[in-house]
Amino acid sequence: MSGARRCTATIDPGPAAATPARAADPGRSRDVKVIIAGAGVGGLTAALALARAGAEVEVCEQSPALRDAGGGLQITPNGARVLHALGLEEMLDEIGIRSEGVLARDGLRGRTLFHMPIGGDIPYRFVHRSRLTQGLAEAAEAAGAEIRFDRGVRHLLPDGGVELQSGATVAADLAVGAQGIHSLARMELNGETAPVFTRNVAWRAVLPGPSVPRSQIWLLPGRHVVSYPLGPELTNLVAVREQAAWVGEGWHHRDAPGALQGAFADASDDLQRIFARVEEVHLWGLFRHDVAQVWRRGRSVILGDAAHPMLPFLSQGANMAIEDGWALADEVGRGEDIEAALVRFQARRQPRAAAVVAASRGQAGLYHLRGLPRAGAHIALRASGSLTPRLMRRRVSWIYDHDETAARG
Ligand SMILES: Cc1cc2nc3c(=O)[nH]c(=O)nc-3n(C[C@H](O)[C@H](O)[C@H](O)COP(=O)(O)OP(=O)(O)OC[C@H]3O[C@@H](n4cnc5c(N)ncnc54)[C@H](O)[C@@H]3O)c2cc1C
């Protein structure tokens, strides 16, 4: 198989899409075989988009089933725009709750600082992560992709094939590393780079009981808390605190609810009532990674957290992985050789991913103000009335208003 194998189709949004389908060319649509390592949000979006573009897609997931990582994801309009273009608007409406906006509050006194309505024609939704990956997997399979479990990938090969953890190799025209934050492929392409502990840890929990249909963010000195609904009787909670002691980077470290409650013992009454509902909580350390310099070698490429892990302060990791999935299929589907498509893919996605990574890093400092700067900022936020929400919306418009389906590398 040569680097000049072609995938001639443009992305077909599928039967459920509102926009007219651009049909794959049936005569040539099976020209390209793609293996994707990782059935997370990025890998599955890429699988769906590539299958719709006419490629033969196999997803290799190391786990025995789709991972139920628990918890929620905020799918902002930029991510939703891609999922709608892939025909998943109805699925998102079924599994998600539309956000009415962001409510910022003083986490010590409970006072409202500002409310930012989301507006716009593309909804901002809260979804259960596992329901989203399930929906993506079903759509990818319906488009012809095959998802195989217990099939870890050890190496992406520059000729587009992969070496499995079993030692077997599988030939293909394009290998995609979508293995998330601990991606081996990123290390192979970029060498081992040590992530830097940000001196922030985060607790996450899903609580029984309702929540208002918006994200609420409470600001406290050196800490912040975000909550949003995941269903009529389910609330997602993430609480972040600065602390010097190191905690491992991973989503599965259990902690005691009392540790979370103790860290926020001075919080406002409404926040205390929410913490009192916590039955099970996980703690993870927040690490800063650099965006990978090298995303591709030959006909292998990385995307999503594998290429650009980011801090969760702007809720963009999954949204960026979704944008990547579309962009990869779009470039591969342009009908030129695959290596050239991967060059364009990196050029198209790396600057935006780097900008979002940088913006996410800056966000914690703004949330965690102390002393006089905190008091001054809160007075200004409350005094500026409708100006603050407008300014806040403008600050994120370059993220939310971006339309990857209209972009080209
Ligand atoms: C608590 C929390 C809240 C978050 N909230 C948001 C949010 O609101 N909005 C948002 O956009 N982002 C959010 N994020 C970030 C988001 O979850 C990630 O950025 C996103 O999941 C990245 O997708 P991915 O497909 O790149 O990787 P992942 O979702 O991590 O998927 C990687 C997959 O690859 C598999 N895998 C790993 N190694 C191999 C291998 N060698 N072979 C085969 N398979 C392999 C894994 O088992 C996994 O299934 C949050 C993250 C956390 C921790």
Q: What is the assembly state of the chains in this entry?
A: single chain
Number of strands: 20
Mean pLDDT, all residues: 89
Q: What small molecules are bound in this structure?
A: flavin-adenine dinucleotide
CATH class of the domain at 102-118 and 195-288 and 366-397: Alpha Beta
CATH topology of the domain at 102-118 and 195-288 and 366-397: D-Amino Acid Oxidase, Chain A, domain 2
Indicate the radius of gyration in whole angstroms. 21 Å
The tally of helices reads: 11
What can you tell me about this protein's structure?
The chain is α+β, with helices and mostly antiparallel strands and 409 residues long. The chain has a domain at 102-118 and 195-288 and 366-397: D-Amino Acid Oxidase, Chain A, domain 2. The protein has eleven helices and 20 strands. It has helices spanning 41-52, 77-85, 89-95, 129-142, 184-190, 257-263, 269-276, 317-332, 338-367, 371-383, 387-400; strands spanning 33-37, 56-60, 72-75, 97-98, 102-106, 112-116, 125-128, 146-148, 153-156, 162-164, 169-170, 174-177, 196-208, 215-220, 223-231, 234-242, 254-255, 281-288, 296-297, 300-302. The protein has an eight-stranded mixed β-sheet. Helix 2 runs parallel beside helix 8 (317-332). The longest helix is centred in the C-terminal third of the chain and has 30 residues, at 338-367. Mean pLDDT is 89; it is low at 1-8 and 17-30. It binds flavin-adenine dinucleotide (FAD).
